[in-house]
Write a structure and sequence with these properties.
The chain has a single domain, classed as Cytochrome Bc1 Complex, Chain D, domain 2 (Orthogonal Bundle), CATH 1.10.760.10. It has 5 helices and no strands.
């Protein structure tokens, strides 16, 4: 009987986890509305800022066709790759992480907003 209960619970866990991630991504899309003035995530197209399509795993300052600041290019050359932790740090305070970045946005102050934006961006980085 315990085995049946265990398997019943375990079969529901992935569903709950995927629902939670979808909710985070949906909330992240709403927060990302602030970013859409300069960025797109659902297309590989630069605007005022570089496309964020495929940003997870990308080396900083390397999206083709975008004119990055020297500071961002240097960050990439020093090994900065966009993963959850680097995005979390950057989105909190872009100018503190990359002094000389062209990004004028002051950053997101709520950890939940940052986590949700990262969940949203992950959808376009597969």
């Amino acid at each position: 009987m315990r085995a049946i209960a265990f398997f019943a619970v375990m079969s529901v866990v992935p569903f709950i986890a995927s629902q939670s991630q979808a909710q985070d991504a949906a909330a992240g899309e709403k927060v990302f509305a602030k970013c859409k003035v300069c960025h797109v995530a659902d297309q590989d197209k630069n605007k005022v800022g570089p496309s964020l399509n495929g940003v997870i795993g990308r080396t900083a300052g390397t999206h083709p066709g975008f004119s990055y600041s020297q500071a961002m290019v240097a960050a990439g050359k020093s090994g900065v790759k966009w993963d959850e932790q680097t995005l979390k740090t950057y989105l909190h305070d872009p100018k503190a992480m990359v002094k000389g970045t062209k990004m004028t946005f002051a950053g997101l102050k709520q950890d939940e907003d940052i986590a949700n934006v990262i969940a949203y961006l992950k959808q376009f980085s597969k």
